[in-house]
């Protein structure tokens, strides 16, 4: 008999599928890397802010030493920016790290974690990885059904993941609705409010989740430097929560989980408000252009508050993969979302104007040929 290594709940995990790298698509399809447009991983099309590049260059001489395990300077900058004590902040190797650590810190094997259908894939992975039970609450119009999520809480529920805006659907929950939800969640259940895309929200949609952290000891707000701040490759995310939750995270966090260059770059990016504003403005402009093209092509899309749009490219369950392949052959990388149970859809990251145009032209050509 062959032995099976690892717990059955780990063997049952379907690994995370990342966006295809440009180099891989160039090799596979015989294309020139420079001609390829990647709109697959919700990265900032402006790349990394110059201020962060400069900060990294200066920090490079420190690389013979370990990073500051407590990230004093970055935490001080975050503390000042968000108006919370540094002791309420935990850094992660990307916010993905925060989501994983939170699941392991708050939940025991066999207990349950609630998240919404079509919400970010890492919630399912984190749940499965610790042998917890997933309660997946059906989405309403591709977004979270908060009332149903409340109703789904059982005696053994220890954590609820909420993504706002959500990836891959881009749906958004208004502040007052979230606040009413937080008010009703029992204090024995932690809520991770994942705000990876919050910096893209227009002024009128913003809400003060940090004020909620002060009010709700069971709330953890998760943010990232990967999206609007433009530092996806460096891997920096952070959590803001009261000391009881923060203390638990700190017990599990790897001591040096955010490297020296990443800490230096994040401080610079945090203070680079001009870059942040430019990123949000470019995103809003690209969203208008993409959705205008979808309207013209009579394609259904989910209104999005992120830096991406989910669009339905056909009515049969092979549509997403078929159109994706046709786009890849034309050097355009987007994200199929069949793994989310959305096989008729593709998720398009909003790019630079010329990247958006290249995608629209390739899509028009693909659909015309169908
Ligand atoms: C909703 C959401 N949360 C968290 C993350 C994790 O991002 P990172 O680990 O780069 O901070 C992503 C990345 O796409 C996301 O879409």
TrEMBL record:
UniProt-listed CDD domains: AAT_like
Write down the chemical reaction(s) this protein catalyses. L-histidinol phosphate + 2-oxoglutarate = 3-(imidazol-4-yl)-2-oxopropyl phosphate + L-glutamate
Pfam families, from UniProt?
A: Aminotran_1_2 (PF00155)
Give the UniProt keywords, A-Z. Answer: Amino-acid biosynthesis, Aminotransferase, Histidine biosynthesis, Pyridoxal phosphate, Transferase
Which positions bear N6-(pyridoxal phosphate)lysine? Answer: 227
Q: Look at the named UniProt entry and state the broad enzyme category this protein falls under.
A: transferase
The cofactors it requires, by name, are: pyridoxal 5'-phosphate
**The protein's Enzyme Commission number:** 2.6.1.9
Name of the protein in its database record: Histidinol-phosphate aminotransferase
This chain is encoded by the gene named: hisC
């Amino acid at each position: 008999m062959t032995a099976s290594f690892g717990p059955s709940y780990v063997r049952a995990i379907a690994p995370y599928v990342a966006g295809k790298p440009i180099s891989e698509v160039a090799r596979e399809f015989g294309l020139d890397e420079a001609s390829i447009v990647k709109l697959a991983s919700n990265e900032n099309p402006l790349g990394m802010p110059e201020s962060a590049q400069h900060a990294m260059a200066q920090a490079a001489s420190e690389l013979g030493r370990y990073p500051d395990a407590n990230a004093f300077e970055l935490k001080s900058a975050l503390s000042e920016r968000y108006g919370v004590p540094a002791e309420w902040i935990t850094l992660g190797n990307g916010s993905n790290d925060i989501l994983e650590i939170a699941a392991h810190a708050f939940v025991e094997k066999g207990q349950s974690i609630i998240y919404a259908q079509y919400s970010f894939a890492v919630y399912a992975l984190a749940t499965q990885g610790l042998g917890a039970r997933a309660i997946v609450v059906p989405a309403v119009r591709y977004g979270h059904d908060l009332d149903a999520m409340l109703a789904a809480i059982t005696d053994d529920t220890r954590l609820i993941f909420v993504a706002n805006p959500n990836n891959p659907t881009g749906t958004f929950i208004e502040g007052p609705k979230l606040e009413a939800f937080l008010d009703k969640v029992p204090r024995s259940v932690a809520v991770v409010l994942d705000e990876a895309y919050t910096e893209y929200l227009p002024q009128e949609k913003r809400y003060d989740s940090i004020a909620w952290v002060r009010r709700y000891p069971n709330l953890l707000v998760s943010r990232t430097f990967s999206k609007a701040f433009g530092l996806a490759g460096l891997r920096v995310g952070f959590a803001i929560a009261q000391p009881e939750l923060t203390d638990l995270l700190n017990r599990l966090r790897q001591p040096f989980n955010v490297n020296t260059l990443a800490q230096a770059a994040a401080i610079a990016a945090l203070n680079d408000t001009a870059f942040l504003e430019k990123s949000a403005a470019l995103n809003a402009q690209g969203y208008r252009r993409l959705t205008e093209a979808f309207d013209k092509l009579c394609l259904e899309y989910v209104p999005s508050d992120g830096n991406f749009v989910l669009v339905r490219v056909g009515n049969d369950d092979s549509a997403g993969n078929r159109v994706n392949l046709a786009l890849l052959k034309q050097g355009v990388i987007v994200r199929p979302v069949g793994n989310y149970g959305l096989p008729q859809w593709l998720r398009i990251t909003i790019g630079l104007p010329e990247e958006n145009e290249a995608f629209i032209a390739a899509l028009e050509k693909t659909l015309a040929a169908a």
